[in-house]
Amino acid sequence: MYRFFCRQLIFYARYHRDPRNCATHYFGIPLLFLAAILPLQASRVVIGSLHLPLPVLLVTPLVVGWIALDVGVGVTLLLLLCPLIAIAEFIVDACGPLATWSAASGLFLVGWFLQFFGHAAFEGRRPAFVDDLSQTLIGPMFIVAKLLVRLGLRRDLARFLAEERASI
Q1: Does pTM surpass 0.70?
Q2: Which of 27, 47, 108, 114 is most buried by a 10 A CB count?
Q3: Which domain holds residue 62?
Q4: 5 assigned to some structural domain
Q5: Are the C-beta atoms of 84 and 31 separated by less than 8 Å?
């Protein structure tokens, strides 16, 4: 799975060469995730004595897939998703349905604006998911991999994130 993951990083990196575009993704991708889970956060699924928020159940297979592709990046993503789920829970508890849906809509619009603006202004090309829809699942892994490389925790991934020089 590691080789597959590295090939996906190489593909994604070709669409994300400019650091300013990557910066828009550091903000846009979490906003999009929050927008996606926010309206679902009020729904609970009862499993025995547990009352689990619906997003936890829906995101679990995604997190398992990320961990299968790369344990370090996947676990880091899991840890980074926890505050977003907590924020969603706070918004749902503090606001009514109208405010929750309004917040989700606003986050969705801002998140996608950042993605498309970054590509149009700094890359001069369309987002990677337009050519390969599976890249929507690689995007979060890409920004976490870049962060881990920058922190010196995953030097093994640096060459796969280095645009055209990357190969596997």
Answers
A1: yes
A2: 114
A3: 15-163
A4: no
A5: no
